[in-house]
Description:
The protein is mainly alpha-helical. The protein is built from 3 helices and no strands. The chain has helices at 3-29, 34-42, 52-57. The termini are close together.
Amino acid sequence: xxxxxxxxxxxxxxxxxxxxxxxxxxxxxxxxxxxxxxxxxxxxxxxxxxxxxxxxxxxxxxxxxxx
Length: 67
């Protein structure tokens, strides 16, 4: 991998990681009641609220730079 490709990948990954909390907040804001929002915000997996965590990570790309 060339250094300019790696720099672009790093910048893209940083941008994505920085905006995950914003995406989570937008998803949680759509829920009807505060109890459901609290249950979802406290969960680390999709088991707590079904789609909030899964939606926040959808389309995030690879977890490491391509080889």
